[in-house]
Design brief:
The complex is a heterodimer of chains A (285) and B (277).
Chain A (H helix, E strand, L loop, with lengths): L10 H8 L3 H26 L3 H9 L1 H11 L3 H19 L7 H26 L6 H6 L7 H20 L1 H9 L1 H6 L4 H23 L5 H4 L1 H9 L3 H25 L4 H24 L1
Helix pairs in contact in A: 2-8, 2-11, 2-13, 2-14, 3-5, 3-6, 3-11, 4-5, 4-6, 5-6, 5-11, 8-11, 13-14, 13-15, 14-15
Chain B lengths: L6 E10 L2 E11 L4 E5 L6 H8 L7 E6 L4 H4 L3 E4 L13 H10 L11 H20 L15 H13 L5 E5 L7 H18 L2 E5 L12 E6 L2 E5 L1 H4 L2 H8 L4 E4 L5 E4 L16
Classes of the chains: A mainly alpha (285), B alpha/beta (277).
Chain lengths: 285, 277
């Protein structure tokens, strides 16, 4: 760090240090936005048992970024396009078309491999080293611009608004597809719609955590929250609180330590999940 | 309105693609009646339910449901499709699932700000509690629905269908996968609902035995044809032999259970456990 930050025992002094530099303010704002959208979209994803689909969407950041570099568009735009394309493909081949979960898993895995292969092709076509593949995979909080924060905010707001509109039908379709269909809900459209929302959340999150560490925010906080309470609203709120805690603490620790932010957020999220799982086991006796 | 039956089918026929699934089905179900639709697998039981819901058109004949064409009555009919239990991992309370019976198909988020909205929410809450109480699920409704037994889940499903206060309830194989005491308990619950709430209850089953003593009438489907009437009048060797076009025997065990022997259906996985197929 340029300012040689040092952790003191004075929390207020630490926070003042954290927010001295604009890049850190941007990082904290971007992290906050990402935490909220990841925690809410992830809550549904965990309940729907679509973590594998979520993971597949997250690795689409790789073909997205390399493809964007190839045709000369902004990297984040490449993320969004690749994730949305993958979501539509998953929606077309996944749950809506196949009856069994095994077939769905196979389709998702195949799409994931294809996406990675496309990314590899784009990379070799580029004939140049991509601007920091490590950043792509593991994220960074350095050099987030105001413009990027604004884009994250808009995409996150759109994804959250879409989730708010279909909150209850999506919950019903998640718990009981047949019942939802009998009630006249467009179940297949809800499937694809949710994957698109998830794609937006994943592409947004991966710009902070990197493609490989999206799950620290997308899975661990909601999974921990769902272990602690089975009431929908408190569990959703807890999921957001956990994600915010992970992001803020992760950014804070990374600022004062020589180790990368992705490591800290992931470790914190893992610790949280272990604590939640452990406390549930204790409560059950 | 009250003099029209809940379901009136006359000469109803259904074709799916080029296959004649049902023909010449006559059925009348009154409000407050509890009727079972029986028959072997593939006899068209589910198809008949979908016709009553207006989800498949009739090729011939007439159908009215609650005094209107089937599709127009659908919002007043509670329907529980055939299902295979909840995900074990479904970490949602039973009571929240019952609430989805009321608002699970509503878009947007409810934010009860006005006193009127708050009052409505309170009334909904009371209705949900009352239904859970009525199906006898109060003790386990606050638990995660995926962790409940099949019988407990079935009671919560019935409660979520009833919170909308439907005038008719259609259940497709609700007893499937339950043990015998639970099958009988659910049958007795449905009898109480039919009589107590003046709801017509139509239930698809492949075994009549757990329902004996609770039913008003049965509709027996086989070979695309149908026969309706009281249990003892319909399930006889003569009737079923006619329906199947092959010799059938109906035996009555000492404890009153019915066993149908010789139904010319290929053996299938339910054959051993369910005497009437």
């Amino acid at each position: 760090m340029s300012a040689n930050p040092s952790l003191s025992l004075n929390l207020i002094e630490d926070i003042r240090q954290l927010t001295t530099f604009p890049f850190m303010v941007n990082a904290l704002e971007a992290g906050t936005i990402v935490a909220v959208v990841a925690a809410v979209a992830g809550w549904y994803m965990v309940l729907r048992r679509q973590a594998f689909s979520g993971h597949t969407l997250s690795v689409m950041a790789f073909p997205g970024a390399t493809g964007a570099a190839l045709i000369g568009i902004p990297t984040s735009l490449g993320y969004y396009i690749a994730c949305a394309a993958a979501a539509l493909t998953l929606g077309g081949t996944g749950r809506a078309r196949t009856s069994s979960r095994a077939a769905e898993t196979a389709a998702v895995g195949t799409i994931q491999a294809t996406g990675l292969a496309a990314g590899f092709l784009f990379l070799s076509l580029n004939h140049q080293v991509l601007g920091g593949p490590e950043t792509l995979l593991f994220g960074t909080f350095l050099g987030i611009s105001r413009g990027q924060v604004l884009v994250l905010l808009l995409v996150a707001a759109g994804a959250l608004a879409a989730l708010a509109v279909c909150a209850r039908p999506l919950l019903l379709a998640t718990l009981d597809r047949e019942l939802a269909r009998a009630g006249g809900l467009p179940v297949a459209a809800l499937d694809v719609g949710f994957l698109l929302i998830l794609a937006a959340a994943v592409a947004t999150t991966s710009q902070i955590t990197g493609a490989l560490l999206v799950f620290a925010l997308l899975v661990a906080p909601p999974a921990a929250a769902q272990k602690i309470t089975i009431r929908p609203l408190p569990s959703l709120a807890l999921s957001v609180a956990f994600a915010l805690l992970v992001v803020w603490l992760g950014l804070g620790i990374a600022y004062f330590s020589p180790y990368p932010v992705g490591f800290w957020t992931t470790t914190l999220a893992f610790g949280l999940y272990v604590l939640a799982a452990g406390s549930r086991r204790l409560a059950r006796g | 309105m009250s003099e029209t039956g809940a379901v009136e089918l006359t000469g109803a026929a259904v074709r799916l693609g080029d296959r004649q699934v049902l023909s010449q089905v006559d059925l009348r179900v009154e409000r407050g009646e509890f009727v079972a639709v029986l028959g072997p697998n593939g006899a068209g039981k589910t198809t008949l339910m979908r016709a009553i819901l207006g989800l498949v058109p009739l090729a011939q004949g007439r159908a009215t449901v609650l005094g209107r064409p089937p599709a127009q009555a659908r919002s007043r009919v509670g329907y529980l499709p055939q299902r295979h239990g909840f995900d074990r991992s479904a970490r949602i309370r039973g009571i929240d699932f019952v609430r989805l019976g009321l608002d699970g198909t509503r878009w947007g988020l409810p934010i009860p700000i006005t006193p009127r909205a708050r009052q409505r929410r309170k009334a909904e809450r009371r209705r949900i509690d009352a239904m859970i109480e009525m199906v006898g699920a109060a003790a386990y409704a606050p638990r995660a629905i995926g962790e409940l037994s099949g019988g407990e889940q079935q009671r919560l499903l019935i409660a979520q269908a009833l919170v909308r206060e439907p005038e008719m309830l259609i259940l497709d194989e609700p007893l499937d996968g339950l043990d015998i005491p639970n099958q009988v308990a659910v049958a007795s619950l449905l009898r109480r609902i039919a009589t107590g709430q003046r709801v017509a209850v139509v239930l698809v089953a492949h075994d009549v035995n757990p329902l004996l003593g609770y039913l008003d009438r049965v509709l027996y489907l086989a070979n695309g044809r149908a026969l309706a009437g009281p249990v003892d009048g319909v399930i006889t060797a003569e009737n079923l032999s006619n329906l199947y076009g092959a010799p059938i025997e109906v035996l009555r065990t000492r404890d009153g259970r019915l066993v149908v022997v010789g139904s010319p259906e290929a053996p299938h996985h339910h054959g051993d456990r369910h005497p009437i197929e």
